[in-house]
Description:
The chain is mainly beta. The chain has one domain. The chain is built from one helix and five strands; from the N terminus they run αβββββ. It has one helix at 3-8; strands at 10-17, 25-32, 59-67, 79-86, 101-102. A five-stranded antiparallel β-sheet has the order 2-1-3-4-5, with no helix packed on it. Strand 1 and strand 2 (25-32) form a beta hairpin. The longest helix is centred in the first third of the chain and has 6 residues, at 3-8. The mean pLDDT is 80.
Amino acid sequence: xxxxxxxxxxxxxxxxxxxxxxxxxxxxxxxxxxxxxxxxxxxxxxxxxxxxxxxxxxxxxxxxxxxxxxxxxxxxxxxxxxxxxxxxxxxxxxxxxxxxxxxxx
Length: 105
């Protein structure tokens, strides 16, 4: 992990619709960079808008990222991991995401 990310990085967890080219975040959690691993609970409470929330989705991609800022958008040089899961409203789903990729866009 680069020193800039380690010192000033933010932890961002984004949940969005799977398999869509134009996919908007349904839930986002932002926090100071914690000691990893960390447990994050995603729900409709973290929805970006009231019109689009996690309970509207069934297949999602969860991205955990060490970010230079708190943006839900990725930037080159950030570190991230992704995992896909099918969810059902009212059920708890557990998913491990390993941050093991450097963003190169």
